[in-house]
UniProtKB/TrEMBL annotation:
Positions of the catalytic residues: 77
Domain of life (superkingdom): Bacteria
Swiss-Prot/TrEMBL cofactor(s): pyridoxal 5'-phosphate
Protein name per its UniProtKB record: D-cysteine desulfhydrase
Length: 330
């Protein structure tokens, strides 16, 4: 456990997120043991995985003496909402550069961005690279206003951001020791820009007692592109930390649950939302965590998991439930 805080951290979490069993869902799915790591409860702006990245990204921004945080995504981006919340907690301004030329419904994440007083802009462009250019242009504008901007790329998947999930692995392993839990057979987690999975994979190098395998469920890219992206991120992170590179065979990603595309709810994702809500009183969202849970359910139904011990790593996204209210009630 000697690896703690390799980079400066701006603390945003209130201690550890809970690690607890899901006995009723496990019984329903005939899984030997099922647990959840509650990164939907990360303590700022309704929580989610990005807060763990933001602790280290804001550590970097503070170190550089910045006073405005600029990031981007879709107008319903969880990452943008959590960046705005984290910036506010750090006493900084938040500028959000959105893809496309329409805000859409003033609901869910966008509503929360507005309530936090984030400055919102429509870039007219799509895609992570084009958005990064648009954010850099905004950073120049901020400089002409005499501000000191800090740009965070879409998803916050930089070395420092992804390091947040190495840190999270350590936390989870510590909780497993306290609860006398032996290693899981599988951890299941949603994959968007890939940094969360990359951080967990590098964390598992350091703490192999976490799990035998980690399954990433892509909500966006196909398997090949998602795997390439996660490999690129694990390579950068391992190199920065002077660890051995992750063998490509360790990166296991399924894109079988993307459905009609990013942000489009699927029937199995909606079923997963209801199943978790009905059995455990917990919520996943239609864009990320509902699809990841659908991936877990599909494995449990296809394979015999009656002897398996599985951890669902909940990454948040709760405001998405409200943006998709109409389809969820279908
Ligand atoms: C709720 C939720 N889960 C999972 C992810 C995916 O995380 P990553 O981009 O690190 O793969 C995101 C990213 O925005 C998210 O908002």
């Amino acid at each position: 456990m000697e690896n703690r805080e390799r980079y400066p951290r701006f603390p945003l979490l209130w201690g550890e997120t809970p690690l607890h069993p899901l006995p009723r869902l496990a019984q329903r799915l005939r899984i030997g043991g099922l647990w959840v790591k509650r990164d939907d409860l990360t303590g700022v702006a309704l929580g989610g995985n990005k807060v763990r990245k933001l602790e280290f990204l804001l550590g970097e921004a503070k170190e550089a003496g910045c006073d405005v945080v600029i990031t981007g995504g879709s107008p319903q981006s969880n990452h943008a909402r959590l960046t705005a919340g984290a910036a506010r907690r750090a006493g900084m301004e938040a500028w959000l550069v959105f893809a496309g030329s329409r805000y859409g419904k003033e609901q869910g994440n966008l509503l929360l961005d507005r309530l936090m007083g984030a400055r919102c802009f429509l870039s007219g462009v799509y895609g992570s690279e084009a958005l990064l250019e648009a954010m850099k242009a905004k950073a120049q504008e901020a400089e002409t206003e005499g501000k000191r901007p800090f740009v965070i790329p879409v998803g916050g998947s930089t070395v420092r951001g992804d390091y947040g999930y190495v840190h999270a692995t350590e936390e989870c392993v510590r909780q497993m020791e306290e609860q006398n839990l032996s290693p899981f057979n599988r951890v299941v987690v949603a994959v968007g820009s890939g940094g969360t999975l990359a951080g967990l994979l590098v964390g598992k190098q350091l703490y192999p007692q976490l799990t035998e395998q980690i399954l990433g469920v892509s909500v966006w890219l196909d398997e090949e592109r998602a795997t390439m992206e996660v490999a690129r991120l694990t390579d950068s992170l391992s190199q920065a930390l002077a660890f051995e590179p992750i063998p490509p065979s360790e990166i296991e990603i399924t894109a079988a649950h993307v459905g009609g595309g990013y942000g489009r709810p699927t029937a199995e994702g909606k079923r997963a939302i209801r199943l978790l809500a009905e059995t455990e009183g917990l919520f996943v969202d239609p864009v990320y965590t509902g699809k990841a849970l659908a991936g877990l359910i599909a494995c449990a139904e296809r394979e015999d998991w009656s002897q398996q011990r599985v951890l669902f790593w909940h990454t948040g996204g709760t405001p998405g439930i409200f943006t998709h209210a109409a389809t969820l009630l279908e």
